[in-house]
Amino acid sequence: QGGARSIQLEATTCLAAVAARCDGGQFARCYSVLMPVLKQLVSAILHKVEDRDLLGKVFDCISVVASSVGHTVFLSEAEGILQALVQAASSPNLPKDDPVQEYLVIASERICTTLGADFAPFVPHLLPFVLSKVTCVSEDLSKQHNEQVLVMNTSEIEDLQNALSCTYTFAEKLGGHFAPFVAQTAQVVVPIFAFFVTEGLRDLVFDLWGQLCACARDGGQPGVVVELCSELLRRMLPMLQDSNPDPAALKSRVFGVARCLGKTGPGVLTQPQVAHLSQLCLALISASFDRRASLRKDNGMDADSAQDLDETGSSSGSSSDKEEQEESDEEEMLRTAAVTLATALMRHQPAEFASEGLAAFMSVIQTLLQPLNRDCDRQLALHMLSGICTHAGELPAANWPSLMPQVLLDTQDPTPGVRRSAFYAASTAGRLPAFAPFATEAARRAAAAVARVRGGGEKGSVKSGRVAQGAADNALSVMAEVLLHHPDSVGDLQAQSALWTMWLAGLPCQEDAAESMRNSKVLLQAVEQSNLALFGEGGCNMGRIVALLVEACDPKVVDVETSVRICSLLRSLDQSQLHLHAEALLPKRRKRLHHLVGLPDAVVPPAA
What we know:
Elements: H1 5-21, H2 24-45, H3 52-69, H4 71-89, H5 99-115, H6 123-143, H7 154-174, H8 182-189, H9 199-218, H10 222-240, H11 247-264, H12 271-298, H13 309-313, H14 319-348, H15 350-356, H16 358-368, H17 375-391, H18 400-410, H19 416-430, H20 436-454, H21 462-485, H22 487-490, H23 493-506, H24 513-528, H25 532-535, H26 542-552, H27 560-572, H28 575-583, H29 587-597
């Protein structure tokens, strides 16, 4: 509150650091004393030009404190603080290097994250200030238009990045409430698409554009979504069709367009647009393969050999070898980006994709999946097939007799990455009726893979070991899909129970968060449906089931809705049975079970 200005600066910085590292509940005890002091300091220096750096630090500190204590505690103070932020942002005749401005952008983003929808009334006042940071760059861009290169110093790049990140947070946290500001924001952001910027900035612009599409969609403005999508394609398609591209930049743009289209929702693209984008994806993949063949030829390698660059260039370790490998990696990621874009089309425009792109993609899959091809090419084919099985259903099922046997063979490939991709492809097909002829063999291979990897039978480096565990996670999903959708292929009730028991033994998933959520939901669903094969003879699997449900009831594992269902299910179990299962739990899980279901202390025994 008093003392030298330098001490106030240090004290404010120190408080922000402490708040950032403290548990919200702990720091909330200091809140009622600390926040009035910070507000008083803001009032004292808000209009003092000589204290602008201190004012920025105080706003930064307040935003960190708000983030620490959370929405409920901070809400009563929010209006006064945000009004002061607006006043600070609208002060007249501010120099370009005003120290407050950088802090205001970051503080606004943090407070929006804390308040969520309650931040909406302040968007009209703060958004113009945040967008002004982008507008300045847009004006510079127009002067540099002939060069198509964005020349910025480090400080300007950081300011632009902070402004884009803040605007993205506004849009993400407010959702449909941000819809009235979509057009204003898009007009400011769109010029950046045309220029060469850092990959991080480019990704931010794409993420923001995609979020604008989502806000317009959720805000009931389908026409705006169509306009945003059309403008994106108008600006991006010429760049994606460059005959002499930089693979890294092209990869970033293709991934960016895919993320944007993934946010638009169904029915936004016309059939001609879907046809053009489908053909573009295949053209990108083909051109990338051509460049790879040319590079290998230039290095005296067989263009058709299955040997990868890293298998030939790793021995010398020369700078040229490293550059070649980096280029190879970028090309591989570019091909993956093209498949990701195609998957976005499948997801939101399935009928149009089926008529315009499906046959061509199935032909490419058939070609790339051949066993003598490179691992990365086969994984690309499996990636394509997974997307098609997920979004096109059984439309390509006529191809399965020639494809699925190879997919199942790939689940035993010596390369963990190929196994992982193959198991994932099999799991996406496993939920479909047409998979029935392959279900028995798929379940057998998946169970064997889980037993081997979880049992420590996988040898290799730490990295390959993690990939192998990820493959086992996907194999668990294959087992789950077969048990849910093709139980008769497993055998009688006893055989099904044996496979459920093996599945339970392989859980929880070790590496793949998406598969962890997927399998946790399968477990919950099967218990809710009183699946006798899952419970085992005499309910012998119930202890393991309770332990897994307790572990799954975590925001890092499942969503809120699933957590609520798990809690409800656990509370519905017989208390005496729950007591028995609790005794077998580790102390940490026992404590969590007590918290979830509110068992009396006598029911949950202390740790041995």
